[in-house]
Write a structure and sequence with these properties.
mainly alpha; 434 Repressor (Amino-terminal Domain); 2 domains; 7 helices; 54% helix; elongated
C-alpha cells in the first residue's frame, strides 16, 4: 500500500498539481496511487520533500511519518544486526554486491582514519 493519495489530499492538491510539481502526467499520479505503477527513487525523494514525510512512510513500509533526522531531539539509533541482515537480504543480487563494495570502502576508510569509528557524533550533528 502507498500513501500518495492520502498525502496529496492532505495537502489539498489535485493529481494534476502534484504531477506538475513532479513533471509527470496526471495519469502517472493516478497509476502510482492505484499501485499500477511505481514511482522512481528520484520521484519518491521529491514527494518526500513535498509531503514532508519519509519515503518509507510514503510507500507504506513504516508507520513513522517523519525521518528520524527531522524529529527534534532524537538522534540516529544504532542499527541492529537483525535490521541490517533484513535490509541486506531484501536487496537484489546486484545491489548486494554494491552494498558489499560500500561496506568494504567504509572499512578501508576507517583504517586510514583509526579514530573515525570512535566518534560519538553522527554525520550532520
Amino acid at each position: 500500500m502507498n500513501r500518495i493519495a492520502e498525502l496529496r489530499k492532505e495537502k489539498k492538491m489535485s493529481q494534476i498539481s502534484l504531477g506538475m510539481k513532479l513533471n509527470v502526467s496526471q495519469k502517472m499520479i493516478s497509476a502510482y496511487e492505484n499501485g499500477k505503477n511505481e514511482p522512481s527513487i528520484d520521484l519518491l525523494m521529491r514527494m518526500a520533500d513535498i509531503f514532508h514525510a519519509s519515503i518509507d512512510y510514503i510507500v507504506g513500509y513504516s508507520e513513522n511519518r517523519y525521518p528520524e533526522h527531522q524529529i527534534a531531539g532524537i538522534s540516529y539509533p544504532a542499527p541492529s544486526t537483525k535490521d541490517m541482515n533484513r535490509l541486506f537480504s531484501d536487496l537484489s543480487e546486484r545491489n548486494k554486491w554494491i552494498a558489499h563494495g560500500v561496506l568494504l570502502g567504509l572499512l578501508a576508510s576507517q583504517q586510514d582514519s583509526p579514530h573515525e569509528a570512535d566518534r560519538s557524533q553522527r554525520p550532520g550533528e
